[in-house]
Amino acid sequence: MQLGLNLGYQTPWSTPADHLALAQEADRLGYSSVWAAEAYGSDSPSILAWIAGQTERIDVGSAVMQIPARTPAATAMTAATIDAISGGRFRLGLGVSGPQVSEGWHGVRYAKPLARTREYIEIVRMALARETVRYEGSHYVLPLPDGPGKALKLSFRPPRPDIPIYLAAVGPKNLELAGELTDGWLAVFYDPSMGSEYTVPLAKGRAKAGKDMTGFDIVPSVPVVIGDDPQMCGELVRWYAALYIGGMGSREKNFYNELATRMGYGEAAREVQDLYLSGRQRDAAAAVPFEFIDRTSLLGPVDRIASRMREFAASGVTTLAVALFTGDAESGQETLRSVAEAHKLSGTGD
After folding, report:
1. The dihedral of CA 269, 272, 277, 278: what is its sign?
2. How far apart are CA 128 and CA 77, in angstroms?
3. What are phi and psi of 267, to 5 degrees?
4. Chain-wide mean pLDDT for the chain?
5. Structure confidence at residue 253 as a pLDDT band (50, 70, 90)
6. Which of 92, 120, 125, 309 shows a CA-CA span of 20 to 30 A to 167?
7. 307 in the same domain as 249
């Protein structure tokens, strides 16, 4: 199991310089990858291109580039460009986002996300392989049949025609799609005790493509807080968990709330959502069970985190992407060093 770093988004409390400092420290420590996210603020490819030009060995990955935000061809162009900038170190993580962002921010209907994702990935792969892109699907038709459009191919040769593609997935059908079409899965709120519930649909998808799980990269983003008391460490993760379970979506459609329910926290998930959507965010955070936070995070002293790393590795995780809950870049760098120490202690490295 390798280590990764998930930088998340730019926030009012972080700057691009902070994220660069963390990425450079992760590079120095031997982390395999650094990932950046996007929602409706900072975009991921800009920060990744900037980091790629100022690091040496670490892979840079999007977690994610949003499917409704770009055409498949634009995504292929960006992926090929960052792969060239980085000397072949880019990993393309994709995700459909959710109905509120897709329709409210990008103006793209959310209907039939699985079918749309399939077509999107197929076109991206064609473009990256420098094939002449002709495609007739339900969601994408290239070139358009009733105009002057011409079938084109990528006009430069990137370092690799097979840039690794990852899919952010939550539900079983999406996991199966990730296994069938991509090289890795980007997970959130990953509970290692449920490993088989994740790997079964992934393996089913791999079998559809005539493959097994060999080489498939399972990459959960896992909050980490170092400290003596796991319970106190977990307090720093409460707001994040409440935002996703309670507020990242509508009452009718919130994938993270549904995930918490499948994990056995249905009653708590409903309470968190009710409180969050009624404007009581502090109460919503307090209502997130510590057990849920602990099962999906790395909390406590280094030896406890090392023990938990063994659980993640045993469940099938191949890249553990830590998300830092620290106040500044300096404390974040110290956490990265502690995580690297725990990783060595765990004996789960290559």
Report:
1. positive
2. 8
3. -65, -45
4. 96
5. confident
6. 309
7. no
What are the two backbone dihedrals, phi and then psi, of residue 186, each rounded to the nearest 5 degrees?
Answer: -100, 115
Same domain, 303 and 283: no
Name the residue range of residue 273's domain.
238-296
Report pLDDT for 197.
93
* Residues forming a β-bridge with 312: none
- Count of domains for the chain: 2
Task: Tell me: do 292 and 305 sit in the same domain.
Answer: no
DSSP calls for 232-261? HHHHTTHHHHHIIIIISS-SS--HHHHHHI
- How far CA 292 is from CA of 5, 189, 312, in Å, comes to 22, 9, 15
Q: What is the DSSP letter of 168?
A: E
Tell me what pLDDT residue 350 has. Answer: 67
Query: Both 183 and 218 in a single domain?
Result: yes
Chain centroid to CA 18: 20
pTM above 0.90, yes or no: yes
pLDDT of residue 112: 94
Q: Do 38 and 57 share a domain, yes or no? A: yes
13 and 46 both lie in a single domain: yes
Residues 135 and 223 in one domain: yes
Q: 262 with 314, same domain?
A: no
Phi-psi region for residue 283, left (φ > 0), alpha (ψ -120 to 50) or beta? Answer: alpha
In this prediction, residue 10 carries a pLDDT of: 87
